[in-house]
Amino acid sequence: MPDRLILVGRIAGAFGVRGEVRVTSFTADPVTLAGFTDLRRADGSPAPLLSSARPVKGGLVARASGVETREQAEALRGLKLHVLRDALPPPEDNEFYLADLVGLRVETAEGQVLGAVRGVQDFGAGDLLEIKPEGAPSFWLPFTREAVPEVDIPEGRILAIPPAETE
């Protein structure tokens, strides 16, 4: 779906007393958040645009459109910032967005279908793919070169080595 929303940041709260916000960025370069001209909320409605951004540890500090006071900035705490997938630049060769993995078929080298990618999470020890088999509970697969040697987005599949085979 080309019009799907991709999470790129979250407002962590106020910074200082003049209405600036601290933003946790989920982009490679946090300052790129200020370059998006169409930030959205999770429901697709417009979110405040960011400007005058400067990097800080863990993200950036920026001005948010329509925010003039610390209280207004604090009221935005927790707001998740999204962009339309089409607003992101195309990935380089042999690169992809993690969001593009959702929905891909996961199979072994022998062609056995393990399920489909339901989500990608990082709980602190690296990315994990949540795989949902048909009619069975989800399981987690480390998103490492050993466990996932091949990702083929145009073909809609991921080649995986199940955990029992990696030990």
Describe the secondary structure blueprint for this structure.
Layout: E1 5-15, E2 20-25, E3 50-56, E4 59-64, H1 70-75, E5 80-84, E6 105-107, E7 113-122, E8 127-132, E9 139-142, E10 150-152, E11 157-159, H2 163-166
Parallel strand pairs: 6-11
Antiparallel strand pairs: 1-2, 1-5, 2-4, 3-4, 6-7, 7-8, 8-9, 10-11
Provide the domain count. 2
> What is the straight-line distance between the termini?
37 Å
The CATH first-level class of the largest domain comes to Mainly Beta
Question: Could you list the spans in which at least 5 consecutive residues all have pLDDT below 50?
Answer: none
Give me the CATH architecture of the largest domain, please: Beta Barrel
Count every beta strand, where a strand is a DSSP E run of 2 or more residues. 11
- Alpha-beta content class: mainly beta
Strand share of the residues? Answer: 35-45%
CATH superfamily of the largest domain: RimM
What would you call the shape?
Answer: elongated
Helicity range: under 10%
The overall pLDDT average reads 90
CATH topology of the largest domain: Elongation Factor Tu (Ef-tu), domain 3
Notes on the structure:
This protein folds into two domains: 5-87, Elongation Factor Tu (Ef-tu), domain 3 (Beta Barrel); 98-166, Roll (SH3 type barrels), CATH 2.30.30. It starts with a strand and ends with a helix. By secondary structure, the chain is mostly beta strands. Helices cover 6% and strands 38% of the residues. It is elongated and about 60 Å long. The protein has helices spanning 70-75, 163-166; strands at 5-15, 20-25, 50-56, 59-64, 80-84, 105-107, 113-122, 127-132, 139-142, 150-152, 157-159. The protein contains two helices and eleven strands. The strands form two sheets. A six-stranded mixed sheet has the order 9-8-7-6-11-10, with no helix packed on it.
